[in-house]
Every structure is written in C-alpha cells, then in structure tokens.
C-alpha cells in the first residue's frame, strides 16, 4: 500500500522509515564518505552535504542547466541523478575548475566579457562551455547556440556568454597551432 | 519525493527476478524520466533498482544492422560512425532531443519508455487522468491541448508519445530485445507500443520486470538518404509540435523505397504506412509528396487546441520529403 508523506502526517501515524545509503563520492579529486537519504540527488549531496554550493538549483527538473556538473568528464544535470548512482564516478564542479587559485580560462573569459548579470546560471554555463569546447562543438556560432541550449539564462546574457566561449575557443586554437 | 529503497542490480538475471517479484520495484537508468516523475509525485516506487552498471552498454555492428545496448546514452549513439554515415535521421533525431546534459544521462532503453509530457498526467493534484489513475477521466480532453496527439487517440486519452528518436526507429522497423521472467524475446518497435484505447495506463507490451537489453536497427539502403525535421515552439531544447522522419531511395525520378514516420502527432510513434503506399513507385514530385501527407493525416482527430497540427504535420512531412529528394536529384 502506498502513502504520500502528507497523508501519513495527517493520519497521525509515525512517519515511514526513510531508507539511507552509505556512499563515497569523488568530487574534484577528493573522496568523501557520507550517509544520505536515498532520495538525495547529486545536486543536494554537493550543496547540502559537502558545502559545494557552486552548482545551483534552478528548476530541480532537468530543464534549466543551473545544476550542470561533469561526471566522468561529461556534462550532466545533477538534479536528476541520485547521489547513490554516482559512486565511483569522477565528479567535477565549478569549484574544481581553478588550479592553485588561478581561474580556468573559461572563468576568466566570462569575467572579461561580463557574461552574466545575476550570476545564478553562471556555474552551470561555465561547466557546459568547458565541455562544449571539449566536445568540439564550439566551431560555429550556430553550434554554440544549439549545444548551449540546455543552459537557460533568465538575465539574457547569451550574447556575452557566446563571446566568452568564442574567445576561449580561439585561444585553444592558438595553443594548438591551428588558425 | 516518496521514500524508496535503492539497490544496485548485480546482473540482468537478478534485475529481472527482483523486479518481477515486486510490483513496487522500478528500474533506474539515466533517471531523467524516472526521477523527474518521482519528484512530481506521479511515480512512487518502493524501490529503485539501479541498472546503470549492467553490461548493456555499447554498439555492435554487422553488415545489415547495428545492435545498441539498452544503456547506451543518446550522445553515445549519436556519435557512432555508422549512425553518422548510414542512419543520418537517427542521429538528427537524437541531437534535436533534450539538451547535451540530458543526452549524456538518458539511455536508449529509457528514451523508448519515456512517459507522457501531458501536463495533467504530470500533476497529481489534477484528479482526472486515466493514464495516472485508471478510470478517473481525462482532464486534457476538456482542458488545454497544445502538446497532445491527433492520431491514435481515444476518448480516454490523447497524450502524445514525445520521443524523437523513436520516430526514425519506427520508420526502420527497429527491434526491441528484452529479457523477462519467461526468457528473452524480440519485438518490432511497430508492435511494441499500444495505443491508449480504454487502457491508457498500459503503454507497451512489456511485462513488469521485463528488461530491455538492446535495440537492433536495420541498415537499409534508403536510410543513408534520410532526414528528420522537428518543428517546435522555440528553436532549440523543446519537444516537437510536429516532426517527420523520412528515408527514401529515388532512382530516375521514381521513389523505389520509402519509410515514413511522424512525431508530435501520435499517441505512439506514428508509422505512416498509407503515406509509404502513396510514395512507393510514384514520381518524386511535390504533388506526390502532398498526396502522401494527405494520406498520412487522413485519420486525424482534433480538438480545438490541436487543430493546427493537421496542416503543420502535412507541411513538415512535405518539407522533409522535398529535402531528401532534393539531395538525390
Ligand atoms: C527537460 C527535458 C527535456 C527533454 N526533451 C526531450 C526531447 O526533446 N526529445 C526526446 O525524445 N526526449 C526528451 N526528453 C526525455 C528524455 O529523452 C528521456 O527522459 C530519457 O531518454 C529517458 O531515459 P533515461 O535513461 O533517463 O530513463 P529513466 O528515467 O531511467 O527510465 C525511464 C523509464 O524506463 C524504465 N527503464 C529504463 N531503462 C530500462 C530498460 N533497459 N529496461 C526496462 N525498463 C527500463 C524505467 O524504469 C523508467 O520507467 C526530455 C527530458 C527532459 C527532462
Ligand atoms: S491525455 Fe492521457 S495523460 Fe493527459 S490527462 Fe488525459 S488521460 Fe491523462
Ligand atoms: S536545477 Fe537541474 S536542470 Fe534546473
Ligand atoms: S546571469 Fe542571471 S540567470 Fe544568467
């Protein structure tokens, strides 16, 4: 038989036992062991259990991209992954992009191009943008638009976000000796 | 979210046995449908069985088909070189769906089993929804209908099947391989989905606990000349209002082979058999393409909110046929 939480509370019964899991998460190269409610998403584990509040909760439904992080080098929405599912995976958040206090080139480019207003979508945008270049999808303006479409920006900073991406993309070409 | 137990499936046999024995156990793949609907309170399984570590990932090729493990992600399938060369409309349909983040999570098995986007289905505070609560009625039929179906509907449900990639896969007669309590079986995608009739909560032929292990996609000559067009309310990252997946082989101006399926219009991914009959052997002209589109939509049943889809779907199909024919002339 099924009860919703509300039904159970209203009926005065003791709340159903909430299953827990012991998990180990590797985030930005550091391994963390924790016990969480099975319902905890990767996003909630990062924010509420590990204090990594860079990834943001926008919609909590996979629709806005504010919670984007990398799992095994690929961008995902952390609000639709269970923390328990991510054991043994390499998780990278916005906090893990900078090295020795030096900003990642994409972070620096976002700052240079003023690619944000309120900043709420920014950590997700930056992680997505880093992956976009890795995926080889920053070749054309059209591709940048299409393959960044999973990251919404309520402030409409899109033109500056694309400018930042183009900048980093051009720099990558310079380093590789391409034109 | 309703509390649930979490368990990791050890192997396919164990996963099938555990889920078959317990009606409250659901499989968890990419989670992009399953967790989404659990957050909304639409689904309340007592246990999630995580199948993501099962060895059902990866693509194997033969001369006549590719076999896609059920846990292969949408991005992985789109990146496959054979898909790129010989199944362009499969790749297009994949990449026009969801976002890169979601495609990195979403599996091909889960994609085929994604649930209706009907706003009333997804809102448990709405009492009437035959799909969520059999026998309770259908709020959409008297409600707001924009994202609903016009083909294969019934008086009990008009929810759309929203998968993009299922459209080209239906056109190609892809085959779903499963493992259940009674062993393995193979079901063509054209027989996999069930129209709502008076049981909209039964969406496909799978038994509870039956696992999709792979999807086999035939490599037809026509599929190398294929195209998928998706029409949406915004340019990107949106479900289809209408879409068309078309594979045609044209020689000397005559259509030798035609495979046609439509998205955004059917309660199931819609194979347009009647359109194929019009096309096969006919001249590859816009006139013929229009007749094919008329045939495809002849059975449409609309409501005020979905009436616009008839014309839009016809134009989408004509445009897709013209594009493929144009590339071959
Ligand atoms: C914001 C958003 C936008 C989207 N846009 C699009 C779009 O434009 N086009 C489109 O086509 N889709 C779109 N989707 C849907 C998305 O493609 C599906 O949610 C996804 O493909 C489901 O795959 P999954 O692996 O995440 O499945 P899950 O959510 O893990 O599972 C879905 C269902 O299938 C069952 N299941 C999963 N794998 C198996 C298996 N191997 N055997 C048996 N049962 C199984 C699960 O128990 C569950 O009931 C969108 C989703 C979101 C959240
Ligand atoms: S269309 Fe189907 S899913 Fe939507 S409210 Fe009606 S019965 Fe439910
Ligand atoms: S919070 Fe995850 S996509 Fe919006
Ligand atoms: S900067 Fe405000 S949402 Fe993007």
TrEMBL record, chain A:
UniProt keywords, alphabetically:
Iron, Metal-binding, Oxidoreductase
DNA damage as a keyword?
no
Q: Does the keyword Oxidoreductase apply?
A: yes
Gene3D superfamilies membership = 3.10.20.30, [2Fe-2S]-binding domain
Tell me which PROSITE patterns the record gives: 2FE2S_FER_1 (PS00197), 2FE2S_FER_2 (PS51085)
InterPro entries the UniProt entry points to: 2Fe-2S-bd, 2Fe-2S-bd_dom_sf, 2Fe-2S_ferredoxin-like_sf, 2Fe-2S_ferredoxin-type, 2Fe2S_fd_BS, Aldehyde_Oxdr_Iron-Sulfur, Beta-grasp_dom_sf
Domain named 2Fe-2S ferredoxin-type: residues: 21-97
Protein name, entry field: (2Fe-2S)-binding protein
Native species of this protein?
Streptomyces viridiviolaceus
UniProtKB/TrEMBL annotation, chain B:
SUPFAM superfamilies per UniProt: CO dehydrogenase flavoprotein C-terminal domain-like, FAD-binding/transporter-associated domain-like
Q: Which InterPro entries does the entry mention?
A: CO_DH_flav_C, CO_DH_flav_C_dom_sf, Diverse_Substr_Oxidored, FAD-bd_PCMH, FAD-bd_PCMH-like_sf, FAD-bd_PCMH_sub1, FAD-bd_PCMH_sub2, Mopterin_DH_FAD-bd
| Protein's UniProt keywords contain Oxidoreductase | yes
Q: Which UniProt keywords apply?
A: Oxidoreductase
Q: Per the record's keyword annotation, is Oxidoreductase included, yes or no?
A: yes
Please state every residue range assigned to the domain named FAD-binding PCMH-type.
1-222
> Which SMART domains does the protein's record reference?
CO_deh_flav_C (SM01092)
Q: Which domain of life is it from?
A: Bacteria
Q: What is this protein called?
A: FAD binding domain-containing protein
